[in-house]
Design goal:
By secondary structure, this protein is α/β, with parallel strands linked by helices. It contains eleven helices and eight strands. The chain has an eight-stranded parallel beta barrel with strand order 1-2-3-4-5-6-7-8, surrounded by six helices. α2 (48-58) links the parallel β2 (38-42) and β3. The two termini are 17 Å apart. Bound molecules: phosphoenolpyruvate.
Amino acid sequence: MARTPIVGGNWKMNTDLASGGALASGVSDAVGDGGGVDVVVFPPFPYLAAVGQVLSEHGTSVKLGAQDVWHEANGAFTGEISLEMLKDCGVSSVLVGHSERRHVIGETDDLIASKTRAVLGSGLQCVLCIGEKLEEREAGSTDAVNERQLRSALEGVAEGQLANLVVAYEPVWAIGTGKTATPEDAQDAHAAVRGVLGSLFGADQASGIRIQYGGSMKPGNASELMAQPDIDGGLIGGASLKAGDFSEIVRLAGN
Ligand code: PEP
């Protein structure tokens, strides 16, 4: 099944109000209508509304995403942000289970499963991040870790929700380190991920789910990675903070 490439820019805890607006403006101008690629930027929470405003003023196809969410609708969850709040800000896509949430903040598979169900249940796009740590790769358990994270997060997800599911395979050792999986290793992992999706939802459904690669992707390595048959775009951290680099990756994704 032909899959539309998707490229996301995870700004993490970077930018401020002025520089976030300027980055959104630069990305909008450079990306334009996306050239057949779905593009999402994930600014920090406090700047969502302002960045959303910049995107809509530019009339761009670039979508607004959030880096995280809390799965309950409302109530006594100090410091947390609900899906309705994100929708109010114009968000249409949410990252769930980013490795920094899993391994720095300490989110568990169970919490990530709750968030995944909540995002997909709300009708927003869920970018579910999975990936192994260096010691897991060295122990030969890359595919087992990805399978565990996928099966846990996707339990109870209905077939009708799969159009809003994107999986981001991000080997933890490659995130922000300058190290990248070889295109062959990344392809092997992506093919195994698609195999797990197939065993959960059937091969037909699995063939329509986009799987992004993330981990030090930049203009110099993006083409080779995205040329792999099961790599459907990228989730970009560092390089998403430069409008020129990010839009170049978007352009390469469309080739
Ligand atoms: C990420 O944060 O999802 C990521 C892939 O970061 P970087 O591109 O900086 O490795």
